Amino acid sequence: MGGRILPGTVLRILLAAVLAGSVPLARAQGLFDDNEARRRIQVLRADFEQSQKQVQDQLARIEAAVQDKSALVELSRLIDGLKQDIAKLNGQSEVALNRAENLERRQKDLYVDLDSRLRKIEDAQGHFPAQWDPKLGIHVT
Description:
Elements: H1 7-125, E1 131-133, E2 138-140
Antiparallel strand pairs: 1-2
């Protein structure tokens, strides 16, 4: 058995050599896959951050628009309230104007009535000139 190698041994040596050579290749492929995966993760992360920034910018614009519209809605409510107040004041001024016109008519009617009564009294007394009585504050005959 001096120089002779058994057939099973050659097969084992050959198998060991193939396996030993394939381990570094597998490790290199694994590193390549990890590097590629890291690069893709970084690209995805950058895309995600850019998308997130766009969404935040868009959200800020929407919030600003909503806030502007909220201010317009509030302003519209205030205007409607002022219109109601003006309508109420117009109604009150119409009532006051009507009362003033009625009082003026009533005063005129009372004046005419009083004047006609005084004329009747003067006609009944024969047109004697009346004299002013400062104590009473009236004209007396």
